[in-house]
Amino acid sequence: MDRTKVLTRGAVLVVALTCSLVAQAAFAQDRAALEAAEEQAFKQAAAVVAPSIVKIDTTGGLDVVGQLLTSTAPTTGLIVAPDGYIVSSAFQFVSKPSNVLVTLPDGRRFPAKTVATDRLRMITLLKIAAENLPVPKAAPKTQMHVGQWSIALGRTFDSPNPAMSVGIVSALNRIWGKAIQTDAKISPTNYGGPLVDLEGRVMGVLAPLSPEGQSEASGIEWYDSGIGFAVPLEDILQVLERLKKGADLRPGLLGVGFKSRDLFATAEVDRVRYDSPASNAGLKKDDIVIEADGKPVTRMSQIREVLGTKLEDDKLKLVVKRGEEKKTFEVTLTGELKPYESAFLGILPERLAKDATATEAGVGVRMVVADSVASKAGLQPRDRIVKLNGTTLTSARQLSDLVSRIRPGEEVTLDTLRGKDAKSTKLKLTGVPDQIPSDVPSFAVPAGAKPAGDKAPKLGRFTGKLPGYDQEYWAFVPEDYNANYNYGLLVWVHPLRDTLEATMLQEWKKLCEQRGVILVAPKAGNAGVWGANEVELVKDLTQHFRETYSIDPARIAIHGYATSGFFAAQVAFKYRDHFRAVLLAGAPLRTAPPDAEPDQRLQFHFICGDRDPVMKFITVTEKRLKELKIPTTVTVMKDTAAKYPSGDAIEEAMRWLDALDRI
Prior knowledge:
By secondary structure, this protein is an alpha+beta fold. It is globular, with a radius of gyration of 30 Å.
């Protein structure tokens, strides 16, 4: 090859390499300049709103609510009016602090009083005795867009500058239309602080929120997950004058249940609550909602989004399809529905094999509850109920659903068979009794063929781990398990740092074998202390057992003792589709129970020694639950201090569990 050509090619390569290095240097220089400009923009935006960001300290109240460690460290607030009104996240006030101290950016300190809470958005309004305070500018919701910079700010240290975390707006109208979503790192210390744009305008106030709950603690499971939420400041300012009046604002309730829980299903009405806004407006079963506040509705999620931003006393305009007609209703929403209460007939239905077809008409009676309407009407075991109010019955689930739609005190017509003798009786149904039946017969599950192969479910006592979780669980499944029959499921949530495994097996194993109940017990991580994120573990473990074994969805209970009582209730309240009952020993409820819902009914049973100091709180809990018309029973162990129950108390608890499918 010509030497000149070789030298020329070499020179070209040298020149190309030099140009590349120069370009990389220029790019690095440009990138450094861009990053410096971005950093300066973030600092300037923070500086604009910094005079309106305050530090909040709370003292007194409860450091722990149940097992939830409440925030005792400083948190953040945002000035929203020049005469001393400040908003913060309601999470900081779950402990009901006796003292609230606000520190302004200029160092002045003021005691604050809690004025009111917006319980839809979980924002609390405070008032301090100060004037001429700087108020930030709100960013219009119409100008927000996914992908724009978002800056999360908080003030929890004695520093002239607020703490800063930068991200982007990752979604709008989240949590059923209530929130802006950001990937900026959010922590409990800056809950109540602002989320701002690059102009220093406040887009929203940071708060823990969840699509599945509305308590002060809902949403804390998202902490450090890359998902944070802020309530638009525009929405807060719209209700500010209402909050200043000193009354909490509650979510607006319509009072209907829909036929499907699938968010993509048609919004077809299944139940209309008695004396609810929907009932008073004239909505009826089988109505299909096709429009809400002028917006077309083709699926459940759309009406839920409209309702998700409504408060009590707000108006809601609905258009429904009733047969071939269209009807329009204007509904005034309420903040509280009259407690739902199911009627009670007084039977335990027969339990058939899962795939069995009843060889006789109607629903067989396994047991008649003493002193019930059914007992007084002369029903006996092995009778068959063939019709209720003229509706032909084909299953116990259908009968239970029909009875649940009847209010206590209403009269029904019951058609029954005893052998070949037919009888029609008019009965006035009552409410669910406060006593556990004393003679619930054990349901001896017929022994089935032992499952074989790799997919055979485990039997006896065993341990395991769910995929995706580090914590172990242990379980007990009766050795004579028969997959053709449905079993009860008891989910045990152990107290702090003590699994009580030996005690649980000693007290429950024989009863589980006698009555066809499976026991499963997750173990807490973090040195045996339950964390908020482990709510998902308990739910997923329960779902795993429902998929692996034959479980009756009407007989699934969660059980807590002493320090685990709050956590057990928290799981049940959040996942009411999974749990039908809560069994607490030596533990009252430490958080308000959810309203009774026709399609998500809960039952409660408490066990406590009469010398246990928490007995007085259980008495208060029992009274409150009964005011809400939630079926509640209590076993008091005589001459007993604080200890896990045994003997007769456990046997009674198992009878309660075995009778959860009563009608």
